[in-house]
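Reminder: ligand-aware prediction takes two inputs, not one.
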Amino acid sequence: MFVNALLLRIRLYFCSSKFTMNLSEHLNHKVFQIIASLAAKEGTPSYVIGGFVRDLLISGSGTAPMDIDIVVIGSGIEMAQKVKACIDEELPLSVFKNFGTAMLKWGDTEVEFVGARKESYRHSSRKPLVENGTLEDDQNRRDFTINALAISLNPSDYGELLDPFGGLKHLEERIITTPLEPGLTFSDDPLRMLRGIRFATRLGFSIEAGTLNAIHQHRQRIGIVSQERISDELNKIIASAKPSTGFLLLEQTGLLEIIFPELQQMKGVEEVNAMHHKDNFLHTLEVLDNIALKTDNLWLRWAALLHDIAKPRTKKFEPGTGWTFHAHEFIGAKMIPGIFRRLKLPLNEKMKYVQKLVQLHLRPIVLSQDIVTDSAVRRLIFDAGDDLEDLMTLCEADITSKNERTVKRHLKNFQIVREKIIEIEAKDSIRNFQPPISGDDIQKIFGIPPSRAVGIIKNAIKEAILDGEIPNDYQAAYELMLKEGAAQGLSPQKGASKEETREEKTREEKTKND
Ligand code: CTP
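Here is what comes back for the chain with cytidine-5'-triphosphate:
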């Protein structure tokens, strides 16, 4: 199954009861040698365990690991301190006494040390009560068999794989399951339910039936996990190559309803008078997978996940028309801050970016179905600004029709929109457009304080430029301003001539550029 140099050895391992697997040639990082000699000298057997071993066996290469987890039969903190003392450079070491762990940062690599432990959990908390234990106790308390694989760093069997729970077989069979009875593993630490779904999504593995059932059974326990941890896992699922796998599993196990009810509500198809709408949950997942093929931008992926989030709220059956979701893009955009706040996602420009894309996601589609007028394209460029390319990517990902001809037609129309965008951009400077006459200018010229009239005149200038009624330049804007001002009973101040304000403008621009 693995396409790597370890394949033959893994097969041999399964064929022969005497064959042991030695992975010492892959322990290239200098830290392994240092730990090995300290383990021998101090009599504290040590092992590398967890993600490093799993990923080594999957990828077949042990180069440049980012995270190394070391388990020590003894004190993990003392081992970390001794390792630090053996290294010439001054490396940062963080000690977490309460957890009995220490983390040494060596260049890009984080090496985490922990003493082997037996753990038992209280019902209300993810914090375990810890007792010292053997390597096997420690492997037992880990989340999944594929994460419980360990490699010895001790003189008698350096490099040997220690796999008491069939983790290697499960890697080979691409299965996620737990070392202990799954209910116990998940009830102990419910975050593991999301970790399991994340690993299945990232690695393209399936979750063993009993393990999947246990997630369903213990789903309410997710309530004791902090929102930050939950969202961290959601982000990792969204960042995967095929995020739909994770969301389907979340839905299937009943976790989605608890952690993301708005998405759950998108599931299902309703039918009236033999007319049905599409399943918006499945459609959303298709869009998310489509966008994952095009971009690593996590927030663009979030926009794909949320683009139709208001469809359940806006759904209506209108006789003669069929199913409608009027204004779902605006209502969806309004829902974004609430969702981001609850999920403890950033409330800064990243949220605004997602909100903007959700709000605008129908605009290029509407454009592409209509005759593409210059003014509509100008407005789109103005409203989307620097996010226009991402918006077009989202809209192209939103085409999920099974009818090839329809897909082709849409893509062709989008191409026309894209060409029109290039043409208009070359002609007018609309992206990040600033009207040639500012609110300040209007106040000075008419000698009026900030007021509604200023806003009306400013807006009339902006609209006229976007509609292509006047060019995007000062002279034309000035003339329109006078006309709009006159309509409001305003006339220019004596002394505030066009030339003067122009001069002022040039002066201001020069200062800005300096
Ligand atoms: N672990 C666990 N239960 C958790 C978290 C971690 O049993 N809730 C154990 C697993 O053995 C895991 C190891 O601790 O392999 C290290 O955890 P972590 O660094 O979070 O994950 P990795 O498995 O290394 O994978 P990744 O870095 O890809 O998240």
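The CA atoms of residues 10 and 21 lie 8 Å apart. The longest strand covers residues 109-115. We will return to this case in the review session.
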